[in-house]
Amino acid sequence: MGGLGTPSGPVLACGEVRTRLLPTSDAVDERTAERLLRLRTDERVRLSRHPNRYAVSPGLLTGVDCRPPSVNGASSRVVGTVTARAVLVEGRVLQSSAHFSAPASGPDRRRPWGHYLGRPGCLIPVGRLPARSVAEGFLAGPGPHELDVGSIAESLMARVCRHRILDFDLPLTTVNTSLRWTAVPAVEGEATSVLFTKADDGLRTVALRLPHGTAPAAVAGLCEDLALHDWLLTTVAYALDGLPAGHEDSGLPKVLRSLVDHLLHLWMPRGHVDRTLHAVWEELDEHTGYSRQWNVMGQRIRDQLVLRAVRSRHQPSAWD
Amino acid sequence: MNGSESVFRETSFMETSGEPRTEALPFSHLSLELGHVYMDDLVEDPTRLRRHFAAVRPWADAARAGLGTPNSGGRPRVSTCFLIDDYFSRRSTPAELIPPLLEAAAEAGLTIDYLARESACAGPVPGGSRPLADGSSRRGRAEPADWVLRRLVESPPPGTTGFRPPASCTGWLANGRRSPSLRVSPALNSAGTVWQPPGETDARVHSVFLDVELWSGQEEKRSWSCAFLSAVWQLVRLGLLRDDGHAVLAPAPWEDEGFPAAWDALAPVLRLNPRAAPFTAYVTCSVLPARFLPVEHAVRVILDQVHVESEVLGQVAMRCAAEGFGVPSEVVDRISYVFPPGL
Fold first, then answer.
1. A211-265: per-residue pLDDT in tens?
2. Structural domain boundaries enclosing A256
3. What's the total number of domains in chain A?
4. ipTM of the complex
5. B123: which residues sit within 8 A by CB, 6+ positions away?
6. CB contact (8 A) between residue B162 and residue A113
7. Which chain B positions have a beta carbon within 8 Å of A114's beta carbon?
C-alpha cells in the first residue's frame, strides 16, 4: 500500500507508543540489546550506532477483526493486522510501538485471511471507513469491544520486560508514558499540522496532518522519536522536581548522578526520523520549546554538579 | 525514492545490520510433486511404488498440459519432486529405498528431478547456520519448521480487538472460533450453561471447523505434525521461505551412482537430474493419495495464516509479471492437488 492519501493508499494511520526505562540497573550493550529484541528467529534485530545506539526488533503482526473506536458511535468494522515493534535506545530506554493504516473503503464482506496477511499493518474496513470519527475516537481511547492498539503495544512491552537478563533494579524513579497518534493526509492547499496534547497521567496524544504520500511507517518512526524525547523531558523534570538546594553540608544526590549516567546523553531529536518529517519535529519544538527546556535542565544539572564539587573540596566525605 | 534518500538511509543504518536483504531464487512455473509415501508403506509392499507411479503418470501429464504455453513462448518450466518421509519412520536406508524408487518412476516414464527428506523441513539442517563476521555462529541449528511457526499470524475471529489475543491453544491452529470450554461437568453445571458450537471464520452459512495440531511433546523434543511439515514443504517449493533473507533448503546436486546407508548423510534436497528446471516454482501441484486429503486441508488452514515477508512476495510477483505468468496473490491459492483414483 502506498503513502497517506495516495490513490491506493491509506486515508488514516494510527498508533500508540509506550516508553519506559529498561527495567535493569545499567544500560545494556549491543549484544544484549539484540538478545532482548530478538522476537523471531528468522529475522534479525536491526542495529544502528549513529547518531546514537539504536536497536529495532523485527515487526510482529497481530490479527484483529472488530469495531474501530469512534466518537459518534458510527458502526463500522475493520479486519487486518496491527504491526508492532520494540525499540531500545542507547541500551537504556525501551519503547514498544504499534500502528496500523487504513484505506477509505474495502470489500463488503471479510475476505480470506491470506488477503490481509499480504497487507501487513493494514486494517481494511468492511464497507466504508468513517475516517474522521475513527481518528478522533482513536485519540480518545478505545471503548468496550473496540480496537485496542495500546494493549498490543503493552503486551509487546511486557514480553520484552519478561526477559530473565533484566534485574528490575532501576537506578531512577521514572514514569511510563503512552503516546497515541493519528495521521491524515493534508488536502490540497492545506498546511501540514501537528497538535500535541499532554495529560497528567502519562498519556500524550498527537494529531498529525501530513503531506500526501507520507509512509505510515515513517510516521510511526516520528512518533517514537517524539515519545522518546517527551519521556526524557518528563523523567528529568520529575527527577529535578523538589531537588534540595545544595547546602553546605549536602552531598551529591544520587538522582543527579543517575541522570548524568543514564539519561543526559540520550537527547538526539530526529536521530532516526525519516528526513521528510524533520520539519514536523521542528515545528513542534518551536511551539513547545522542548529543546530549550532540555538545554536549561541539562545546564542546571551540570551547574549543580559543579557547585557541589566546589563545596565538596571543603568536605571530601560528601563524595563518598 | 531518489538517490540522495537512498544514500541517507545507507549511512543512517549501521554496517552489521543495515536493512534486511532478500536473496533471489530461480523459479520454475510449476513444482510437480509425484508423491509422498510413508516409509512403512514402501517397506511393507515393494510393488506399491510401481502401481503408484503408473497411477500418477496421466495426472502428472495433465498438470503439465494445464499450464499451457507461457507468454514468453517455449515450454513451461516444470520440475518434479518427491518427498520421502524420514521423519516419522526410518525403517529403510537411502541405499535400499532410493534406487527402486527412481526405477519405478522411470518405468512409468517419470523423472524425479528433486528428492527431499521430510526431516529437512523440521531441521536441524546441516549447514543451516552461517558464521557471522565476528567468527561466531548465529545459531547452532536451522529449523525451517520453527521459522514458519514464528511467522504464523492467527486469523482473528470476529470480535478480536487486540485487548487480549484470541483464545489460542498452544501447539494448535484453528480456522475459526473454538467451542468455549465448560469448566464443570454437566452434573455440576447449576448455571445451566449450554454447549456452544465452534465456528469457522470464513464459513458460508455453515461451518467446517478445523483445529490442526502443529506439534506435540515438550519444546526441546518437539515432534512436528505431518500437516505442519507439509505446510513448510509447500512454502519451500514456492520459494517463499527465507532465513534472515537467505534462501533455505537449496538443492544440492547428487551425481553419485549409489546412495549412503544413513539418511542424515544426504542433503535435505537433492537434485538428481542435472538438467532439471529450478526446484522452486510460482505454483505447485501435488499428486497424492486421497487419504492425504485431511492433511492437505490442514496445510491450507496453516498456509492461510503464515505471514510471508513482503519483499519475498514482491520478488516473486515481479518475476511473474516479467514473464507474463499470472500467479494468485494469496499464497494458499498457489498450491493445488490431484487425488487420483486408485492411488
1. 999 999 999 999 999 999 999 999 998 888 877 665 554 556 788 888 888 888 8
2. 1-320
3. 1
4. 0.87
5. B141, B142, B143, B144, B145, B146
6. no
7. 303-305, 330-333
